[in-house]
Design a protein that fits this description.
With 217 residues, the chain is an alpha/beta fold. It has seven helices and nine strands, in the order E-E-H-E-E-E-H-E-H-E-H-E-H-H-E-H. It is globular and about 55 Å long.
Length: 217
Amino acid sequence: MAVELNITVPKTARYFLHGNPSSKTKEVWFVVHGYGQLSKYFIRNFRHFDPETTVVVAPEGLSRFYLEGTTPDSRIGATWMTKEDRDNEITDYVSYFNLLLAKTLEGLSPDVKVNVFGFSQGCSTLCRWVALGNVKPSRMILWAGTFPPDIDLKQFGHRFQGYKVDVVYGLNDEYLSWINAGEITKWLEAAEIDYRVSTFEGKHEILKAELDKIVEL
């Protein structure tokens, strides 16, 4: 009979950076992509952020796969986790984010604000990091995604207090039933979390004008 065992191994994780970390840096944004995306493309949504005062960090999911076909020119995507061996997957990416946070903040002013942004599957990933990891954000944006029901807000709700949580989604999002904004707000209200819901005329996407509007709120 086979026995399931685990071993922790070194892993090379890729991330992308926009901005020039320096004494002029006022804020850092950690932006977490959705299912099947790659960070080198996802970070383009934030390339208009001022590189002198703002650093954008886009970690990439630790598991990559072919989106369609397996030829040399086939598109590649990444995912944060699946239902298989999920607890270890979560532990791995929380540890990854913690290391990346520490590396990013090295040499920066202790007054630098850390903001977090999740898109689609990246929302659940981000929330687990906030609940279980070392980050203490100044603000959070959950865009076109949902709050993970496996996070017990009775236990971890305090990790989401003291700052604004923005819930954003397009009214024509093809995954609207999965996002279930009504359920999200119910959880947040029960945990006494300060949140704000914003909608826009769009699909499962990040629109620059809408992003700028939310960031400036």
